[in-house]
Amino acid sequence: MSTTLPAPARARRRPFSPARGLVHTVLVVVCAAWVLPLLGLIVYSFRTIADSATNGWWNALVKPWFTMTNYQDAWTTGGIGRAILNSTLVTLPTTAITVVICAVAAYTLARMKFRGRMTLLAIVVSLLVVPPQLTLVPLLRLFGDLGLTGELPSVWLFQAGFVIPFGTYLLHGFFRAFPEELLEAAALDGASVPRTFFSIVLPTSVPIMVALAIIQFMWSWNDLLVPLLFLGGGADVAPATVQIAGLVQSTGGGLNALSAAALMSMIPPVVVTLALQRYFVRGILGGAVKG
After folding, report:
1. Contact 49, 256 (CB under 8 A)
2. Which of 96-105, 138-147, 220-229, 273-282 has the lowest mean pLDDT?
């Protein structure tokens, strides 16, 4: 006697419907709208100036002729190598300052009882509505009086200061939901508040802090206005965004070296984001708190 086994679930196909076809069509159009400009940027970065001046980038798919000259020009003449280093010197300290201050402030407001705690939290939340552009002129004058204009700490303070309210509010909600049993067990074992914070709270809060670090890193790396105002446009201190904006003016719209510079400036944030995203997902799936 033979029995017929049911077909595997993965072999079963849902019947086609106009609604599903419309959804798939919209998704394909959206993906093409995102991918095609990036593909054109990549192709332009490898094409010669003569080819780019005579025909569109899509012709390279028919008659491919590529060169690495654009990357060499962007690295040497365009100064994108120094600019990427400057962006790193701006972004990494800003991200570290933001995460550290937000973690300490959020834990203090969420778990430590003192007079005026809710008032202080309300002030922090109200700072979320303050636009950064409103403080540019006052802070420029203040940093000028302090001798910080043209120095990296001015950008660190500005960029971190306007993300700290958001980061504190984000981490505050996480710390408020932190299991009380873990904190009580640590207190019964004789752990002090700093020991509890560094040994228990921080290790189990890595996913949410990684998410905050990604947000700050991307905003700081892609920021153009703040470094341009507080550091100036000098090649020795200009980050990648400012240097690429200068290349737009100096090349008169030439796309070859500019495309190569843009692609090289995209590599660090893409690598960092993908690495932290994998770590973030692993932390969520592993479970920060069990029991």
Report:
1. yes
2. 273-282
Statement: residue 91 has pLDDT above 50:
yes
pLDDT at position 84: 92
Compute the distance between CA of residue 83 and CA of residue 265 in angstroms, rounded to an integer.
9
How many of the other CB atoms lie within 10 Å of CB of 282? 11
CB atoms within 10 A of CB 94: 25
Q: How many Cα atoms within 13 Å fall on the side-chain side of residue 22?
A: 3
- Angle of helix 256-286 relative to helix 80-111, nearest 10 degrees? 30
Q: Which of 194, 219, 166 is nearest to 104 (CA)?
A: 194
SS3 291: coil
d(CA 260, CA 247): 11
Please name each of the domains of the chain with its CATH number: 82-286 (1.10.3720.10)
CA angle 270, 103, 101 (to 5 degrees): 85
If one counts every other C-beta atom within 10 angstroms of the C-beta of residue 154, the result is 23
The whole-angstrom separation of Cα 158 and Cα 117 is 25
